[in-house]
Amino acid sequence: ASEGKDGASTAENTPPWVPQGKPGERSSVFYSAGQFFFEYLVVVSLKKMPDGHYEPKITYQFPKRENLLKGQKEEEERLLQAIPLFCFPDGNNWAPMTEFTSETFSFVLTNVDGSRKIGYCRRLLVSPPYTQRGSPLPTVALGTSCHARSSALGDVPQKATGLDQSDDRQQEGARRGFLELSAEAMGGVLSLLSWGSMALPWQLIELTRPVDAHLEHVEFQALLQRLSPHLILHIFASATLERRLIFLAEELSVLSQCIHAVAALLYPFTWAHTYIPVVPECLLDTVCCPTPFMVGIQRRHLERVLEQPMEEALIVDLCEGKIIREVGDEEEILPGKLQNEMLISLNRHNNNNNVHTLEQVNALVSEAFVHFFVRLVGHYASYIKWGRSGSGSFQERAFCKAIASKSCRRFVKKFVKTNMFSLFIEEAEKSRIPQEGNG
Question: For 103, which DSSP code?
Fold first, then answer.
């Protein structure tokens, strides 16, 4: 797998002011459930319907769950119904073909309780036995997880399912090993065996996991390659105020990589609203939603999107590297001095100033945005008033008043009203541990 080709891992740079339940415990929403990294291995194939068109259907699922409780069974059914739609969001205009560019991407499904489940996909052209007789069709191998990883992980389900092999023998052990990959082993290299070929039956797949959990699913380089630092800051500014953001690209991999990267710029805060890196064609009316959202749409649907009766939104064309539609005040949202500092930092990284690995780019870009939040709201812990019962109460007015710069205070007064800040403070009010490095 491509994840294992580089042994480098990022240095720990989690700021000490991030609220944590226990020392060393990860607070990311993606690490809230599940002992193992993967829950299911699934193959989705295109099946010919009586009217001649092709529809995506699950043709393989491992493991088959039995004896589930009613609530668990309903959740599993919702998951399995949604998976084919998100594996083929392009619609139903499919036919047997001889050439198809393979792609790796991921999608996100949000549960009723707000938790997220991620599908790591590899879509490629496959011959029988997974497709109908002799007709190669695009097919998807995916693994589902509650945990965030690089979208490049989609290569592993392909190996574990043996999707690129006509011989399906000895797969059971490899699939079970794949599913039992632990979600807790941060850092170092995780290994699993996969059925390869008759000549080399077992292959060792190695996955390198970064030490820093919040950078695990991020590829900032994908964003820097397609957008100027100036535009990235406009997008970041819109995201901090929880506006509606629409990203356009033709490739599913570009959409998922870039949207994950934008969401990661908000760390240690988490985007708490509608989040669909790849929107299926039949759900395009999502852009009419009056509440905040961050969505990715294939560029071929641009005209249909623009025809929708939507409210103000930022529309970003990742193919052309430009913003198609904006509110108009994006330049003034962030405090000028801090905005210039981040612009200088992004330009430095964008010029690849002695930065060679994706991990280094991730760490340096993340550091610039974390520093932005430290400068503006890093003093929050000093304004949590603790009661005798141990519960905390955030003193919002005093917190804002303590900021000397007028432009910084103006931004923070808006930022404290967002869901992402409220959720962050709620966690801080629950976890009374010594805070360091405030200010």
Answer: E
Instruction: At 43, give phi and psi (nearest 5°).
Output: -115, 130
421-424 contacts at long range (C-beta below 8 A, 24 or more positions apart): 421/269, 421/377, 423/269, 423/270, 423/272, 424/19, 424/268, 424/269, 424/270
- What single DSSP character describes residue 47? E
- Measure Cα distances from 138 to 84, 122, 158, 301, 379 in Å: 12, 10, 13, 21, 52
Q: Which residues does residue 372 pair with via DSSP β-bridges, in sequence order?
A: none
Distance CA 11, CA 133 (A): 51
Structural domains in the chain plus CATH codes: 40-168 (3.30.450), 220-342 (3.40.50.11500), 360-431 (no CATH)
Q: Radius of gyration of the chain from Cα atoms? A: 23
Tokens coding 313: 């939104």
CA–CA dist 406, 184 (Å, integer): 44
What is the distance between the alpha carbons of residues 297 and 226, in angstroms, rounded to a whole number? Answer: 16
Measured between alpha carbons, how far is 322 from 228 in angstroms, rounded to an integer? 8
Which two tokens mark 195? 């059925």
Q: What are phi and psi of 365, to 5 degrees?
A: -65, -45
DSSP letter for each residue of 236-252:
HHHHHTT-EEEEEESSH
Structure tokens at 175: 């699939």
Q: For the chain, how many residues are written? A: 439
E strand segments, 174-311: 189-195, 202-208, 244-249, 274-276, 293-298
Give dist(CA 27, CA 298) in Å, integer. 32
User: Any idea which residue has 């050439």 for tokens?
Assistant: 99
CA dist., res. 195 & res. 79, Å (int): 27
Q: Render each residue's pLDDT in the chain as its tens digit; 439 residues.
A: 233 333 333 333 333 333 333 333 332 222 233 455 667 888 888 888 888 888 899 888 877 766 667 777 777 788 888 899 999 988 777 877 777 888 888 888 877 667 788 888 888 887 655 445 556 888 888 888 776 654 445 455 555 555 544 444 444 444 444 444 444 443 444 444 343 433 333 344 455 554 455 565 678 888 999 999 999 999 999 999 999 999 999 999 899 999 999 999 999 999 989 999 999 988 898 889 899 999 999 999 999 999 888 889 999 999 999 999 999 899 999 999 999 999 988 887 666 555 567 777 888 888 899 999 999 999 998 999 988 777 889 999 999 999 999 999 999 999 999 999 999 999 888 876 544 434 3
Q: Label the pairing between strands 244-249 and 293-298.
A: parallel
